[in-house]
């Protein structure tokens, strides 16, 4: 209700789903069953607090503030994102090979030609803004049909962790971008 009150039904849609696949499976279900044709941009947030990380609450608050804290800031960020390229932007980026050992099984399944020398990156925590083109192209993969593991509070090595990395790879290998908000803003300064 708070989210919809800030943005209105003409700018946002909310779906309530069972707690499976953490935030990733519900995201993929929206891609599979939602009408994405009218969206030029999007913001993906969730309620993860990352309690296993020392800075988990701060990370969550920072993402929330930047992504939807102020309408003017959100509008400015979305206005900088090229809607014709499948791109995503977040607070932080890490190399795709980060935690490769624990995620290699799923990464090699999702990206058959994956190399540990890959230069792609990803946005940790799957909270980001991006183009509608990213959503539309990702939807064609039907990733919601993958076999998601039972939720047991795993910290790494599950399909959801590999998909977190795959999203960045997907954007970058489709002529899009996976980068930080800082780099997005810097690239538009005159």
Task: Describe the structure concisely.
Helices cover 43% and strands 9% of the residues.
Q: Would you write up a description of this structure?
A:
With 190 residues, the chain is α+β, with helices and mostly antiparallel strands. Helix content is 43%, strand content 9%. It has eight helices and six strands, in the order H-H-E-H-H-E-E-H-E-E-H-H-E-H. It has a four-stranded mixed β-sheet with strand order 1-5-2-6. The protein has a two-stranded antiparallel sheet with strand order 3-4. Helix 3 crosses helix 4. The longest helix has 15 residues. The mean pLDDT is 85.
**Helix fraction bin:** 40-55%
Question: Could you say which overall geometry the principal axes of the C-alpha atoms support?
Answer: globular
Number of helices: 8
Order of secondary-structure elements: HHEHHEEHEEHHEH
Distance between the termini: 39 Å
Low-confidence stretches: none
The proportion of strand residues reads 5-15%
Mean pLDDT: 85
What class, by secondary structure content? alpha+beta
Q: What is the number of E strands?
A: 6
Q: Report on the biggest sheet.
A: 4 strands, mixed
Biggest sheet, spatial arrangement of strands: 1-5-2-6
Radius of gyration: 16 Å
